[in-house]
Amino acid sequence: MTISINKSLDFQPSEEDDLFGDTKNRKSRVIEMADTTASALKAHLNFQNQNKLILNDVYRQ
Q: Which long-range contacts (CB under 8 A, 24 or more apart) does 40-48 make?
């Protein structure tokens, strides 16, 4: 499985909407990912989505 990286996390954004920005070199890249890693990430995403439903307005993305 491959994954495309086209955003970078800004640990000190000036505004909450600026949490993700361009990568350092402003280019996207594609990396290979093991199937077990992809499965773990999908399970974690499912966990996050369940929390969003339960916590509603309190959940911060």
A: none
Which tops the pLDDT comparison, 56 or 2?
2
Name the phi and psi angles at 55, rounded to 5: -90, -20
Amino acid at 26: R
Q: What is the pTM of this model?
A: 0.60
Please check whether residue 48 is in contact with residue 60, taking contact to mean a CB–CB distance below 8 angstroms. no
What are the CA-CA distances from residue 28 to residues 4, 5, 13, 41, 61 (Å)? Answer: 7, 5, 21, 20, 23
Count CB neighbours of 8 within 10 A. 13
